[in-house]
Amino acid sequence: MIIQIAGGGVITLLGFLLSRTYGRIDQAHKDLGTVRKEMTELALQVAKEYIRRDDFQAVTDAIFKKLDRIEDKLDAKVDKP
């Protein structure tokens, strides 16, 4: 009789611990889903707001070409009497 009561208590304790463990695993899966969603949204935001390096380089090259032309024109004006 005592062994059956002790066995029932152990089984009850194990059931409780397994229930808590599975609850935590379920919560971890939910949290993982939330993190994945946030990372996807962040990736989309970054793609919208930032430009690629080669695009940036092309724009800066064009700006510097314009500045060089302006500098050449100013030098030509200064050299005129």
In short:
It contains two helices and no strands.
Task: Walk me through this protein's architecture.
This protein has helices spanning 2-49, 53-79. The mean pLDDT is 91. 93% of the residues lie in helices and 0% in strands. The chain folds into 2 domains: 1-50; 51-81. The chain starts with a helix and ends with a helix. The chain has 2 helices and no strands. By secondary structure, the chain is mainly α. It is rod-shaped, with a radius of gyration of 35 Å.
Task: List the SSEs and their pairings.
Layout: H1 2-49, H2 53-79
Number of strands: 0
Count of alpha and pi helical runs? 2
The radius of gyration over CA amounts to 35 Å
Average predicted confidence as pLDDT: 91
> Percent of residues in helical segments?
over 70%
The figure for the number of domains is 2
Q: Which structural category fits the helices and strands?
A: mainly alpha
* Strand residue percentage: under 5%
Order of helices and strands: HH
Gross geometry = rod-shaped
Largest sheet: none
Any low-confidence stretches, pLDDT <50, length ≥5? none
Question: CA-to-CA gap between the ends?
Answer: 119 Å
